[in-house]
Structures are given as C-alpha cells and as structure tokens.
Amino acid sequence: MLTTTAGAAAAALAVRGASPAAAQAAPTLAGLSGHDPVPLRWVDGGTPAELTGGTTWGVPWPRGAFAPDQQFSLTTDAGAQVPVQSWPIGWWPDGSVKWTAHAVSTAGPRAETYRLSAGTAAQPSAPVTVTSEGGKTTVDTGVITVVFPRSGEHVITSIARGETVIAKDGRLVASRQDKPEEPGRSESFTGRVSSVKVEQDGPVRAVVKVEGKHRRGRREWLPFTVRFYLYAGSDAVRVVHSFVFDGNENKDFINGLGVEFTVPMRGEPHDRHIRFAGEGDGVLAEAVRGITGLRRDPGQAVRQAQYEGRATPDPATWDQRVTTRLHWIPAWGDYRLSQLNAHGFEIHKRTGDGHSWVRVDGGRRASGLAYVGGPTGGLAFGMRNFWQLHPTELEITGAAGDEATATVWMWSPRAGAMDLRFYHDGLGQDTYPEQLDALEITYEDYEPGFGTPYGVARTTELTFWALEATPEAERYAGLAAANATPPLLASPPQHNHAAGVFGSWAPVDRSVPAKAALEDNVDLMHKYHREQVDQRSWYGFWDYGDIMHTYDGDRHVWRYDVGGYAWDNSELSTDLWLWYHYLRTGDAKAFRFAEAMTRHTSEVDMYHIGKWRGLGTRHGIMHWADSAKQVRISNAGYKRFYYFLTADERIGDVLHDLVDSDRSFLVLDPIRKLRDGAFEPDPKALGVGQTTDWGALAMAWLAEWERGGDPIARTKLVNGATTIAALPNGWVQADVTYNLADGRFAPMTEKTVSIGSLSSVFGLIEVMTELLGLIDDEAVKAKWVEFCRLYNATKEEQQEVTGASWGNLNLRQAYSRATAYAATQLNDETLARRAWQELRTGHAGYPENHSFASTRVEGSAVLNPVDEADLSTNASAQYGLAVFQCLALVGDHI
Length: 894
Prior knowledge:
Layout: E1 38-42, E2 54-60, E3 72-76, E4 81-82, E5 85-91, E6 97-105, E7 113-118, E8 129-133, E9 136-140, E10 145-149, E11 156-161, E12 164-177, E13 186-201, E14 205-216, E15 219-231, E16 236-244, E17 253-264, E18 273-277, E19 283-287, H1 300-308, H2 320-323, E20 334-341, E21 344-350, E22 358-363, E23 369-374, E24 377-383, E25 392-397, E26 403-411, H3 432-442, E27 457-467, H4 473-484, E28 489-490, H5 493-498, H6 513-535, E29 551-552, E30 557-558, H7 574-585, H8 588-603, E31 616-617, E32 629-630, H9 640-646, H10 649-657, H11 692-706, H12 712-725, H13 764-772, H14 778-790, H15 795-802, H16 816-826, H17 829-841, E33 855-857, E34 866-868, H18 873-890
Antiparallel strand pairs: 1-7, 1-28, 2-6, 3-4, 3-7, 5-6, 8-9, 9-10, 10-11, 11-12, 12-13, 12-17, 13-14, 14-15, 15-16, 16-27, 17-26, 18-19, 18-23, 20-21, 20-25, 21-22, 23-24, 24-27, 25-26, 29-30, 31-32, 33-34
Helix pairs in contact: 6-18, 7-8, 7-18, 11-12, 11-13, 12-14, 14-16, 16-17, 16-18, 17-18
C-alpha cells in the first residue's frame, strides 16, 4: 500500500510564493512533531559585506515535523529579528512539509550565523510590493521602483530611486554573422517580450519572469527566459538570464549577446564617474573628465573629491587657471573591460565614436562589475562568473553626453563569432557498422546530423544596483564580491542528514582509523578534480562547470581531443558524487564546484527544445557532439540537489520539463545501430529499459511528485516500480516494454536475464533508496533488495534465483553500495562484510592500497605546471558514491 499522496496542503498557497501547481486536496495532518531551531551559516563563511539584493535558500525537515502552512522566524545568534519570507517547496507523502525556502533582504540585520525556528516571521519595515495595471507591472522595494512592460522591446522600462531615474529601457541584445572567421553579413536583434508573470510578490522578495525571443524584422529566434529578483529595502535587481540556441550552426554565428540599459547622465563631465572591479578588491576609479594630474592644480580638495566619487566643490572655488580651461580637457565617454580569456582582461577608453581606443590598464581575472553615474546616482552592473564564462565584456558608451549605455556582454563583440559547428567532417562514417567500428578506437559514437547544438541553452546570472551616489571604494569592492559569489545561507550537514533527505549518506565520520583513511581518500580525490579545473583552464561560455572524462599520461593532458574521453557530461553520475560530497562536508569549495557543474549540465549538456527535448548528450569532444542522446545524461537527479538547497526557479523549470522526457522514445531509437528491422515505436510498448532509462525518468517523476506538481509523475513513478517488481526477474528481466500513458511495464511470465554494468550507476541506486522510503510496498522492496544482493554475488547464486548467470559484470566496486543496502535491509552481517570487501578490492575502481596523492609535473614536459594523479572521473565518481553509502549503511562493520 502507498502512504497518503503528497499533495501540498491548500493552506500552503497562503504562504507567499507557494506554487499554484501544488494546490491539491489538503490532507489531514495529525500529531506533527515540530522541530528545534536550526542553525544557519553562510556557505562561504563569515559575514558578507553585501548581498545581491538578498538571498534565498532551502531547508529540509523530517517527515511529520510541520504542516505546509507553518510560519518561520529568523533571528541572529544575538537575538535580533530578521524579516524573512518562507514558503514550502517540497512535501512528504503524508502532506507534511519536506523542504521550505526562505528569503532575506540586504536591508535586514546581517550576522555570521542565524537560527531558523517555527514562529511568526518579522516583517520588513518597507515590504516589497507588486502592482500590475495599464500594461505594466511595477515592483517597489521601498528604495527603488522597477517598471516591467508587458510587451515590446524592453524588459524593463525604468529603475528609479524616488523621482530620479537611474536606468531605463533595459533590453536584451544579440547579433549574428553568416560566416565564422570573417564578419560577412551581420545583423542585430533585440529581445521582444511575449510574456510577463509575477511569481512572487513579497513581502521580502518579488520575482518577475519575462519570456520572449530576439527579433529583427520577421525573424524571431534565441528564445529567452529572464527572471528578475527584487528584495525589500534593497537597491539591487538580480537577474537570471537563460537563452536557447535555435539557429543553424552552419549559418548563425553569434557575435554578441548582452543586456543593456540607458543611464541618464547628470552633472558636469568632471562629476561623472566610471568604476571597474579588477581582481580581488581591486577597483579602477576614473572620471569622464579627469581633473587630476593636470599641468595646473585645481586644489587638493577638488582632486580628492573626484577620486573618491563625491561632488566636486563649486568650480568658482578652484584655481581659476583650471576652471577657465575645463573645456580643453577631453571627456572620455566610452569605456570597456574585455575578458576574452580566463587569464587576462584589458580596459580601454576613448573620447567617442570615430576616435582611437586608448589602453587604460589590464589584469588577470576581473570580478565582473562596472559603474557609471555620479554623486546624484548611477548604475552598477555586473555578471557572475565573469572570467570563468569568457569571452565577456562590460561596456559604457556615451557617458560624456546626456545618456550613457551600460552593457553586460555575455559574449563580447570583441571575441569573434561563436562557432558551434561539428569539429570534423564525419571521416566517412556513413553507415552504422562504420560508426560502431569507429567507436572502438575513439570511443565517440558519431552519426551524421546528431552533433547539433540546436536546443542547448546557457544560463547567466547578473546584478544591477541603482545606487544613490557613486559608491565609496570599500563598498564597491563589497558589491563586486557579492556579484562574483552571491552569498547563500545553508543548514548544516547534521540537520540535513537528520531530516532524512537524499537517501543514504551521513556527515563526515573520522571516529576510527579505517573511516578516517576513507575520508582522507575522498577529500584528496575531490581536491584533485576540483583543482584540475584551474590547472587545465576548463573555462569558457559553453565549457565552464564541466570536467574531463579520462587522462592521457603520455601527453600529460586530459583527453580533450579523443572522442568520448573528453568532456564528462555527467557520465557515471559525477554530479551526484559532488553534491553528496558537499552534503557530507558543508564545504564552500565543494558547493561552488557542484553548483557550477549543475548550471552547466542543466543547460549545455541537454536539449530544451526540438525533437530531442529532454535528452542529454553522452560525453565527447563537444558537449552536444555524440549521437547517443539519452535521459541518463539529462537526469533530474543531478539537478535536484541545487533546486532544493537554493529554491532556484530556473532549475525548477528544467526539472518540470523532464517529467515527460519519456516521450523522446517515440522519436529516437536508442538501439538503432543494433536493431534488425525498422523502428516502429508503439506508445503502449516502447523499448524503455527498466534500469538506466527508468532510473533517470524516475528521478524526474520523484522531483515532480515531491514538489507537488503534475500528478502523472507520481502515477508513473509508482506504476513503474510496481510493474518492474512484478516481472519474474525484476530489474534484470530481458526484453521489457513500457506504456507511455501510465508508466507501466508489460507483464511477463518467463524468467530471462539482461543486465549491464551501467544499469544502476546513473542514479537508479539512489532513486530506489529514496523511493522505498516513501512508499510502503513490500514486493517492490523485496525485488530491489534481491537485485542489490545478486549483482556482486556468485554466478551460482544468480543462477539459483534468476535462472541464469549474470555474466562477467564490471564496476563491482561501484556496486558495493548495492550490497551494503541489501545488508541493511536484510540485517545480514555477512553481506555487510562482503560490501566492505568489494569496496576494498576496487574492481574497476580504486583498490584499498591505491594512492590518491598527486605528482607535480613542470618544465618542458608540459605547457604549464600541473598535478597528475592516477585518477579518472568515472572511477572517482563511483568510488565516492560507494564510500559515502557504505559508510552510511554499514559503517559499523568496517
């Protein structure tokens, strides 16, 4: 029997921000236990100087602790009340709340640590308000007022502080050329708004979602979804910008992609200020018309005021040898900071169009924030991961005139065109036999027409501050730091584990030497892969967030140019490993590493539109190059952590879109290169595998079910699990067929066996662990435990239960966690000892005596000094997951 369906209580909609999709019949909740206050800290430690307007985070709760309409209060450890907005984002099957999201503003008290408790929330002194009328939506934070038109070419009409318009005519811009290496014919496009939706309306946080496409004449392309986040008492607008590439990669070469505002300029040119953030706390401070360093000195007070960004004294008080000659001083109205690679940026300026650019300065890695304005107000504008997502640029033009243009270029026009074409001509692989033969040498699964980027996406985070005056250098550095790494609150590993979320894991445990040795191994392994990102410069617009698959020790490089050995693309659940590492440690570097990967794999490695919508692409030299398009790569389980830990709406969209990814089996035959006869898909009998395929689909359905979304998700999840368990051999039954309508697998009577080593290493073990904790079905449990017990069992044991040996299976170390799960469920000490033996033996992984230490390679053997270790990403991901789960499940038997 299933426990009560996990709909959101109708009362949850009374909580600000609750999703209407969660409105279902409210279950009766009795005997809720409540929960002690939960300590919170900033992920990156300390107390941040600035926030990007505010911050939003998620907290899990044990089953039965709270009803969905529970209110929460937030206090600093000193006892100060902090205004907080709370809403449920996940539910247990009994209707109690599983996850809550919380938002605070930069206007609230800021401390190093906080306490979240059940109770009445403090209200902001000036709540954010949202009104929609007359073809526009207006958000008032109490400090700034932002107007969103409901259609047209502007995503924002104006941002004002009181009566002063700081910025206006916010717009999305893009340009393309029809040839890659030379300009050819170039066209400019402007984003055209088709939809505006208010997703939250306060009191602490408001969210406005804007959708549309870029347009020029009759052509509309590059669909976008842009969310704007505004917080009570804040002068910031946080922006999450997502776009999908829907062009022809052989004809559409993007040579510019940005967001720009018009900034009214007030005051004399010498009272107009330009700021750029460099690396660390570095700031370039200049004026449009400089009055320092002149042949004649206007006076120390004048010079100091301009340098510090304050209004200069009345020119009548200056040395008149300067005052009478101000018109001879050039006004530098155009500036740009270009970060065209991860290792260097350049700043240039000019007096205006038609005149030479003069080099100002340069540096290594800019923080990604600029400012234009003066003592009566101005706009700070920036982009997160600015140097990591190169080629980027911050540009200011026209600052010497009445209006300046401030642009964040997510793809700099100075970088040349974006070339998304496939990297080779097919090499004669015209037939399936030729493609399969080539797979044997390069590990690349090539097929003509399959290496298309049509439908891949990218998400970029930006922040705009409408400031009342030019910020002092210290505050500007704080804004730059917040823009580069937005501060985030988090609950500790101990609480998250006690809440019972995300299956089998436990906080770091060094209580005995054997456990400490394993903890040392996984720390060294994580550190090595994390630091390879910088050593190997795995950065760039389409690449940042991913890591490489396999190493080439002869060349001392990762196999970036060898077929399927290049970019990892989530192969063997790298994402899961990184997220569980963070959950166990609470380490900031672990969080940021996993966060970057999730942003990448959720956008670049999967298709968001088109016939392959909902599918991901297997690992390869280009993220979309391989012809294996599979749900195992677009796996919702890899993204779900980030959604619940941050309540990120963009990831929520992606999770929801994956609910019907099983429809892709109607249009793409996964075994087309091996099939005899024509592909004739039957919606009632699709060739969906009950392991790798179903495990990925099940993660999407689980996420949708616990979020209170489309009820078909729960239906298919439960139907799939119960009908698989009813098969004679369950998850190893051969030749199964799947019904698209309800998620059931067709019944069979004869025992057959079909099993591969990849069957459970793409999230199936993890989703089943969670699912069995949510449903009360002994048949499903028994069949899954049988599978877990038998994978690493003897051939005789497999033969006895399933009628056949399972063959010479690979990845036995990875499946030690399956053995550990069976040991726990069966209370079998012999299995527990077997699990540890399987882990230590290290089949297809790292044996007990494996060295996780790295060696420095320098000099002429390499381009740059690097560290090498005997580690591969596949083995590391599965070793990490096996260690984590064996420690959590059978740690007492180590």
